[in-house]
Amino acid sequence: MATPGYGETVSLFLSRVMAALDDGGDTVLFRHDDTTMTRRQAAELLSCLYYGLSGIRGTVAIDAGNRPEVVLTQLAAQQRGLEVLLIAASASRPARTAAVEATGATLLTDADLTTLAASPLSTQDTLPGGVTTIFPSGGTTGTPKLVRHRGIYDGMATIFRPDGTRTVLVTAPLTHMTGNAAVLGALLCGDTVVLHRKFDASAVLADIERRRVTSLSLTPARLAAVLDNPSLPHTDLSSVRQLSVGAAPLSPRRLGQALSVFGPVVGQGYGLTEAPMIAGISAGEMLERPELLGSVGRIVPGMEARTAEGEVIVRGLSMMEGYHGKPPIADGWLRTGDLGHFDEDGYLFLHGRSGDVIVTGEHGTKVASTTVEHALLSHPRVRNAAVFAIPGPDGEGELVHAAVVTNGPATVDELRAHVRETLGGEHFVPTTVDFVDSLPLTAVGKVDKALLRSPFWLGHPRNIA
């Protein structure tokens, strides 16, 4: 393993990564495309990638599909002291170009990773004092910001200790915080990663049974696809010890269904690209107090949170260093853009995005779209729903619109009456409802409301009215 010179410090994260690979030997690190990669093979590939990156300076941008080389190239670049920009799988072509131009990065695609992997073996002489990874923010409501993370990696090296008993299924893009952190955590813990190139509910269920998966993380939309899959009743789920749900609020009905199917192993987390670990809630808490099915939990140690004018603001240990090109955020408070409230026991309940609020009715009442979605999802024949604003007649005012996926016969009037009864206010009731076969998802598994919304706003100078 690389060692520092006299008086120098090295990244705890990189030191732990190298030790985990060196100590792992022939234990399996990756199962991918019906092949296996041991830790010894991963260490050799890492040294080849390190050699291949020898002529690059500054920042490396990785824009590639799910494969082990993505994370190993990231680590090789960080061993060289390079900053790494991970291009989000959901980013538009202009956003990808803008991110590379803003950082001055050298872009690496799938073809480049294949070429780098064929480089000769090499030895790392020294390790830098820290690592920096840049993630674009979600960008579903505008141009993505570039989020710089540094301190979180040494935090991971402290939290994740050798275990080696888990098999972690990863379907999220490795260029997204969720997938990236899952693989790095498994590497540090000595666990095995079952890596999928893309999400497929049937493949997830098949590998849970075939690979005896112990841990996985899903977005609400992907969890719904698993729960609705016809293979579910015939799948052995007994190996699963941890199912984490995050990236968007999950309806209480779906969460209750997941607890019923998977047992007391389902937990919900809340975080942002800017602050990946903000709150969490365990299955035990939800089973003991069913009213908490609508909560994302309590604030995790090392983080602080409160609300300001209804918006959740946070600060603490999992915070980003700052946005690229902007001053570090230091100990400042971050506005999350999420609307919510805390109950008397400190449990956080989210109502929606501040940018996802519909201003409707003659009094300009603010309606959080998530509130209406949860009401629709409590109907027994609604499988999935997305609620958003559409322009009113002649482009004046905003109306509540719902796109709904059902698993049985339902009418617009029936669903509108259900929302009215559930929420007790006419302003929550969708003015219009479309029945669709499925909802489009971004590459990271969130419902793509921007795509759903865009046809309604064609010809309008802005997406608000």
Question: Outline of this structure?
Answer:
Pfam families: AMP-binding, AMP-binding_C. The chain is α/β, with parallel strands linked by helices.
Distance from first to last alpha carbon = 59 Å
Largest sheet: spatial strand order: 2-1-9-8-10-11-12-13-14
Please mark out the parts with pLDDT under 50 across 5 or more consecutive residues, or reply none. Answer: 1-7
Strand content: 15-25%
Protein name: Acyl-CoA synthetase (AMP-forming)/AMP-acid ligase II
GO molecular function: CoA-ligase activity
Keywords: Ligase
Organism: Amycolatopsis sulphurea
Topology:
Elements: H1 12-24, E1 28-32, E2 35-38, H2 39-52, E3 59-63, H3 68-79, E4 83-86, H4 93-103, E5 106-109, H5 110-117, E6 133-136, E7 146-149, H6 151-159, E8 167-170, H7 177-189, E9 192-195, H8 201-210, E10 215-218, H9 220-227, E11 242-245, H10 252-262, E12 266-270, E13 279-281, H11 283-288, E14 298-299, E15 303-308, E16 311-316, E17 322-323, E18 334-342, E19 348-353, E20 357-360, E21 365-368, H12 369-377, E22 382-391, E23 398-406, H13 412-423, E24 432-435, H14 449-453
Parallel strand pairs: 1-9, 3-4, 3-5, 4-6, 8-9, 8-10, 10-11, 11-12, 23-24
Antiparallel strand pairs: 1-2, 6-7, 7-17, 12-13, 13-14, 15-16, 16-18, 18-19, 20-21, 22-23
Helix pairs in contact: 1-2, 1-6, 1-7, 2-3, 2-5, 8-9, 9-10, 12-13
